[in-house]
């Protein structure tokens, strides 16, 4: 059981940042349901290292990014990066996010918080390295395919609500997958913030924005509006369009249009397209439109894609054709076996056991559990759960007494149908919230003896009817745990909502029993620590704690089922022996 709780960061918690990247190689880490062996470093920067990590079960290779954060601002930036990756993942031209974990600076041993991000491995490496290793320039058709796929990734970002601006688009952040497609990576500078300077902006206000831009962008890719805020141009998605102009120019001519990062040249759009060029003439006008000084004159990303489609039609190019730009180049740097392309596969799913399906590892059910369990699991926190579309913010808006113990298990107080001041949740507000966040995917477990119209929750309410402050029958508690487990296994989107009158003691009994039922914790104390950190101190009675312990023993290595058969006590051992004759 201790292996199940092994920290993904335990192996590096004692080392400092300077050199720990080498100590990390060869170690085993666990993220979610995957156990990984760290193979080697493939990239590094001032606060980040990227490794190849191999899944010990499937043998698949992944990219494992380790980031260090020495202050609150950097912590927020990393969490923002994870949130954006989770939101954008699924697009064929964006690196796929798989899992994340974090450790606080208090536990790291060197005063810096650390994060691990598990992503798909793009076996082709960086596009810029491929271009530099090629014996000649990229053919025009390959430039078209590469740039088109890059623009599709940017379009996916700009279509979000609100639009996500990458802010650090450059050839170095374009990777090549083993299947021959471009993958956009590194969302550490991405933002949804936009600025619209005007004559009312103060010098301090402009200076603050400029400082923030400087920290998050690459000099030679900065657009004019980023370098001179006194031009009062909008700072929004258009800056990505300018960066795309720099990328296209580099793909065509193998040199950056503003190689020296000269501020005046960028502000004035002072670059030249080679007069002798005949290979890439179809892109000349597009480059000029992308590198317009005034962002209002640049096309949006959809217009850019339309133009590329017109070029493809004129040249009879199928834009879905895989890239073929590695001919004549030695084996790719990110693959140990160049003849075996790296294929992305979903994480291995836990297999059900013969014991009433109650002993499966709970990774598929509790994707966000590893975190928040206080001292037991302080050293590993599922950062992907932390940065989900923050449910707590939505809950606060509705003023509901509702807590996510994990991303798929909710505890709340009683949903009242009247105006009873004793109950904070009104049933209609709860219904609206659940329908909005978890439409047709929730099951409600009413642990109280008080009832309401179950039709409000689509008749998916289990009436358990336990007496307050008392433990239920063992068979009843076991049956609820099994029912919850089966419901969550049916669909990865399903959630369980548990409530008693106040969402405390009785609810905590169910949640604690369920956590040990799934073998995520060994004892009631460990399970209740998570409940306390996510909701409140439940104030369980000794009997309620014992019953959680009973469930834990029932699903141990030698499991057994509850029964109601009569039991005859044959002997009773008391130690020490009571002194019956002693006078009080």
Automatic annotation (TrEMBL):
Residues 391-558 form the Phosphatase tensin-type domain. Pfam families: Pkinase. InterPro entries: Kinase-like_dom_sf, Prot-tyrosine_phosphatase-like, Prot_kinase_dom, Ser/Thr_kinase_AS, Tensin_phosphatase. GO terms for cellular component: cytoplasm. Residues 330-359 are annotated as: Disordered. SUPFAM superfamilies: (Phosphotyrosine protein) phosphatases II (SSF52799), Protein kinase-like (PK-like) (SSF56112). Keywords: Kinase, Nucleotide-binding, Transferase. Residues 330-341 have a biased composition (Polar residues). Residues 36-312 form the Protein kinase domain. One of its GO terms (molecular function) is ATP binding. Its EC number is 2.7.11.1. One of its GO terms (biological process) is positive regulation of Notch signaling pathway. The keyword Nucleotide-binding applies. This is Cyclin G-associated kinase. It comes from Mytilus galloprovincialis (Mediterranean mussel).
């Amino acid at each position: 059981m201790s292996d199940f709780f092994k920290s993904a960061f335990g192996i590096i918690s004692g080392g400092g940042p300077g050199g720990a990247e080498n100590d990390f190689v060869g170690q085993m880490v666990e993220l979610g349901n995957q156990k990984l062996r760290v193979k080697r470093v493939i990239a590094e920067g001032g606060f980040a290292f990227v490794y190849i990590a191999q899944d010990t079960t499937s043998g698949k290779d992944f990219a494992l990014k380790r980031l260090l954060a020495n202050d609150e601002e950097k912590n927020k930036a990393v969490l923002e990066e994870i949130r954006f990756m989770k939101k954008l993942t699924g697009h064929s031209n964006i690196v796929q996010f798989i899992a994340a974990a974090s450790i606080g600076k208090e536990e790291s041993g060197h005063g810096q918080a650390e994060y691990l991000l598990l992503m798909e491995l793009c076996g082709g490496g960086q596009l810029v390295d491929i271009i530099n290793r090629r014996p000649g320039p990229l053919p025009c058709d390959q430039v078209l395919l590469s740039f088109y796929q890059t623009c599709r990734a940017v379009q996916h970002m700009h279509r979000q609500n609100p639009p996500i601006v990458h802010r650090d688009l450059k050839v170095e952040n374009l990777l090549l997958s083993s299947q021959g497609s471009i993958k956009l990576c590194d969302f550490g500078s991405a933002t949804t913030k936009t600025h619209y300077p005007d004559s009312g902006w103060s010098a301090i206000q402009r200076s603050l924005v400029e400082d923030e831009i400087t920290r998050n962008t690459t000099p030679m890719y900065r657009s004019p509006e980023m370098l001179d805020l006194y031009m009062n141009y909008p700072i929004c998605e258009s800056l990505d369009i300018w960066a795309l102009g720099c990328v296209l120019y580099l793909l065509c001519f193998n040199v950056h249009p503003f190689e020296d990062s000269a501020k005046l040249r960028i502000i004035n759009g002072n670059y030249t397209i080679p007069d002798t060029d005949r290979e890439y003439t179809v892109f000349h006008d597009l480059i000029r439109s992308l590198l317009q000084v005034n962002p209002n004159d640049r096309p949006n990303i959809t217009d850019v894609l339309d133009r590329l489609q017109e070029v493809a039609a004129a040249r009879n190019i199928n834009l879905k054709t895989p890239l073929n730009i590695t001919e004549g180049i030695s084996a790719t740097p990110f693959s140990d076996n160049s003849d075996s392309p790296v294929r992305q596969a979903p994480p291995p799913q836990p297999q059900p056991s013969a014991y009433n399906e109650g002993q499966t590892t709970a990774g598929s059910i509790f994707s966000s559990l590893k975190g928040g369990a206080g001292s037991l699991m302080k050293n590993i926190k599922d950062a992907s759960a932390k940065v989900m579309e923050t449910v707590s913010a939505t809950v606060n808006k509705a003023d509901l007494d509702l807590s996510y113990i994990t991303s798929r298990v909710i505890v709340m107080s009683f949903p009242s149908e009247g105006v009873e001041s004793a109950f904070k949740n009104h049933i209609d507000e709860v219904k609206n919230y659940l329908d909005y966040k978890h439409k047709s995917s929730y099951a409600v477990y009413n642990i109280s003896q008080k009832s309401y119209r179950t039709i409000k929750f689509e008749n998916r309410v289990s009436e358990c009817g336990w007496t307050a402050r008392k433990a239920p029958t063992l068979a009843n508690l076991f049956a609820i745990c099994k029912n919850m487990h089966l419901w969550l296994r049916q669909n990865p989107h399903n959630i369980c909502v548990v409530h008693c009158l106040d969402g405390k003691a009785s609810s905590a009994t169910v949640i604690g029993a369920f956590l040990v039922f799934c073998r995520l914790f060994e004892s009631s104390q460990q399970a209740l620590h998570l409940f306390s950190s996510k909701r409140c101190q439940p104030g369980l009675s000794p009997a309620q704690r014992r019953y959680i312990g009973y469930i834990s023993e029932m699903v141990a290595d030698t499991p057994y089922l509850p029964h109601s058969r009569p039991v005859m006590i044959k002997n009773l051992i008391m130690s020490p022996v009571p002194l019956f004759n002693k006078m009080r």
